[in-house]
Design brief:
7-stranded mixed β-sheet; 11 strands
Length: about 120
């Protein structure tokens, strides 16, 4: 079973910073795109930031200029540096990876990690 390992997150005050990391499996799965989504209570799960194996990035308008997504070599992991945090950034953040196994394409989700920003 392909699993993602999420770490980081926690609590911060408005204006502060947090960093999220997500590690992909070391074997049996080749990621071509990875990213972070978030879901606040009562809201849909929305895209925060994505990065491809070619290094192309995409950000939600609400986080542009504040969040930065980066990747390790061979998409072994991605990181989300979150600066200038706002209370509206409070949510459960989910890592997602799209890639391939020996049997075909696969989308994998992490279990989610809570980020709480206080004013």
């Amino acid at each position: 079973q392909v699993q993602l390992e999420e770490s980081g997150g926690g609590s911060a005050q408005a204006g502060g910073s947090l960093r999220l990391s997500c590690a992909a499996p070391r074997s049996g799965f080749t990621a071509v795109a990875m990213g972070w989504y978030r879901q606040a209570p009562g809201n849909h799960r929305d895209t925060v930031a994505m990065i491809t194996s070619a290094g192309t990035t995409n950000y939600a308008d609400s986080v542009k200029g504040r969040f930065t997504i980066s990747r390790e070599n061979r998409m072994s992991a991605v990181h989300l540096q979150m600066n200038s945090l706002k209370p509206d950034d409070t949510a459960v953040y989910y890592c997602n990876a799209h890639g391939f196994t020996d049997t075909g394409p696969l989308d994998v989700w992490g279990q989610g990690i809570l980020v709480t920003v206080s004013s």
